[in-house]
Amino acid sequence: MTDPSRRPTVLVVDDETGILQTLEILLRAEGFDVHTAHGGKAALERIPQLTPDIIISDVRMPGVGGVEVLNAAREHDAEVPVILMTAQATLQTAMQAVNAGAFYYIQKPFRNDELLAILRRAAEHRALRLENKSLKREMKRRERKNAPAPVGAHPAWIEALSLAEAVAHTESTVLITGESGTGKEVVARYIHELSMRAEATFASINCGALPEGLLESELFGHVKGSFTGAVKDKEGLFTAAAGGTFFLDEIGETTPATQVKLLRVLQHREVIPVGATEAVPIDTRIIAATNRDLEEEIRRGAFRRDLFYRLNVIAIHLPPLRERREDIPLLAEAFLRRGAALRGGETKQLSQEAGDALREYNWPGNVRELENALERALILTHGPTIQLSALPERITERRSEPLIADRIAANPTLELIERAYIQWVLQSEGGNKTRAAEVLGIDPSTLHRKLSRYGGEA
């Protein structure tokens, strides 16, 4: 066996108690971890719970036969070797077993050393297949790790991505916060792609887009007849994302009743479909996101404190685009390249005026708004260069509001004095923010933040 320190798990299936006891004693003495199932029906229940390395099953059993056990086992785990045994061997049943995917077919009565030799080969086969699968998974993981990260060079964005990369290989629940359009789902997908769950499903739902009843049905599933229109059982997204990642966007929009059910999922790792009475276990990594201040929502009584603590194991905050203006040209270039790839043409360039307008706009809709603006510009532009006129009017309008009022307060605050000084420097430098930042001795991004906070032109 490839790993002698690991005891292979064997499930023995037969309708004769004597056979089960004899094989259990024999195989335990040879170092196998042995479990038994009395009949095929019992085996169907044990297989999902146990996930055995090897199955030995009689062919002829009342109710559920060995070939049915084989099919159920391979459906649950395509790599599991199944050895079928029978006292009435015929060429037809042997061919049926092989065609169904049996690892070996042995006739009763058999010698102990014969069965043990087959079992050892099955254990080696199992170990090699699992090792090969693990190596392939690791290679894919490394390939994904070398894939380009979401675009951005601002320190706050790099810090958020570094945290995402650090937590990706764990099973910890992640809460991503940030304004709408900052890229919360992009980062959630990035975590999934870097994780060991990357080969499985990435499911997502916007919790604020559906009414409570429909949302719970989508999340947890429902059973036939549980409500009007429930004509058949429906699997929920928590179970559909088995082995993968489930992204709950805008979790702050959920009702208190839904929050109670989500808390149960996080505490017990199980869901109860709408209309059902029994819980269903889940194996899903949960990432949640919100554009709300959940701690403020807790103070208002709109969000459960215990659910917040369950979600907030790893917190990642994404800064708004107006606070990472140096990333605007990088994002614009990436969107323009993607637009060219989708349309099969050359990548268009931004004119100087268009680029300046993008950098100076305040982007209340963040990265999503930038992407939509550039998609519009690509549609309206027929030449190689995107001009200012191709951008939405809200971006090209130059609104310059004074940072301070005409009348100065008798006892001005420090903030008011700072506003006035910044405005004076800007006027002295002809409105050039880069030169104004140099005179002020601050980074241009810091100047942009102050202008945005003061309500002036950013």
TrEMBL record:
What the entry lists under InterPro entries is as follows: AAA+_ATPase (IPR003593), AAA_lid_NorR (IPR058031), CheY-like_superfamily (IPR011006), Homeodomain-like_sf (IPR009057), HTH_Fis (IPR002197), P-loop_NTPase (IPR027417), Sig_transdc_resp-reg_receiver (IPR001789), Sigma_54_int (IPR002078)
CDD domains attached to this UniProt entry: AAA (cd00009)
Q: Which GO terms describe its molecular function?
A: ATP binding; sequence-specific DNA binding
Q: Read off the PROSITE patterns from this record.
A: RESPONSE_REGULATORY, SIGMA54_INTERACT_1, SIGMA54_INTERACT_2, SIGMA54_INTERACT_3, SIGMA54_INTERACT_4
One example of a Gene Ontology biological process annotation: regulation of DNA-templated transcription
The UniProt record lists the Sigma-54 factor interaction domain at 150-379
Tell me which UniProt keywords the record has, alphabetically: Activator, ATP-binding, Cytoplasm, DNA-binding, Nucleotide-binding, Phosphoprotein, Transcription, Transcription regulation, Two-component regulatory system
Compartments, as annotated in UniProt = Cytoplasm
Q: Which GO terms describe its cellular component?
A: cytoplasm
Keyword Disulfide bond: yes or no?
Answer: no
How is this protein named in the record?
A: Sigma-54 dependent transcriptional regulator
Q: Which organism is it from?
A: Pseudogemmatithrix spongiicola
Taxonomic classification: Bacteria, Pseudomonadati, Gemmatimonadota, Gemmatimonadia, Gemmatimonadales
